[in-house]
Design a protein that fits this description.
36% of the residues lie in helices and 31% in strands. The chain is an alpha+beta fold. The protein folds into two domains: 68 residues, Orthogonal Bundle (Multidrug-efflux Transporter Regulator, Chain: A, Domain 2), CATH 1.10.1660; 138 residues, Multidrug-efflux Transporter 1 Regulator Bmrr, Chain A (Alpha-Beta Barrel), CATH 3.20.80. A hairpin with a 2-residue loop joins strand 6 and strand 7. The protein starts with a strand and ends in a 12-residue tail after the last strand.
Length: 260
Amino acid sequence: MLTISQFADRSGLSPSALRFYQRKGLLLPAGRRENGYRVYAPGQVDEARFLSSLRAAGIPIAAIREFLRLNGRAREAMLTTWQQQMTARLLSLQIADQYLRGMKSSQPQVHLEHWREPSVVIWFPATAPAGPLPFRADVTARKKELGRRRVPVLTSGYVRTLDLVDGQLHGEVGFRIKPGRRLPQGARRQDVPPTLFATLECAAQGDKAAHRVFRFLHGLGFRPEGLHLERYLPGAPDRYLLMMAVRRIQPATAADGRGG
């Protein structure tokens, strides 16, 4: 059996970390000596290193505790979830790094907005005459309706224009809500994975905002992919936020058929 100092030296964890894991119920000493001092079994070294590795990977204590209670397929499913979350985090860090390296004070105020968790956006059909911010009345009415139905809205005012027929715009107005909520009547549900958006606040009369964002993104090595939204901004009747989901442009390699 190993004392806590010996076990700490063997596992690479500090005695304070071992005491912390004991308090959290994740790694209990194998026993105690007559003097009350903790002792650990050599076979617990790998377990201690595994816990430390999960913590270094950013896994929360509560998630580790749940993982240790599981076995078999349930553990595999949880590992898969962690792997997917890590991939998303790494991608967002790579994009953020590329964004910061390419920023210059003379460039347009394109920013990043990260939906870190899976989201639900509900959409309602809307029709309005062509013009600046045509669906503002629909956004206001639908938000009030959701309030009456006690559906909490996380962010609101998303707009998608789908068609123009005889001077009438046909589209959708959307609201981001918490997952698990019952879908209101007449709404369409869209599940959105963790997504990084490039955003640009625009004047309602502007018609070249998307081209500015495309040029800016391409210069930083990004490309738009997936959702392309306009968000009507509270307290700004003549402005909106252009939002484009983005991915990094992967550099060409010899495997692409472009190498020498």
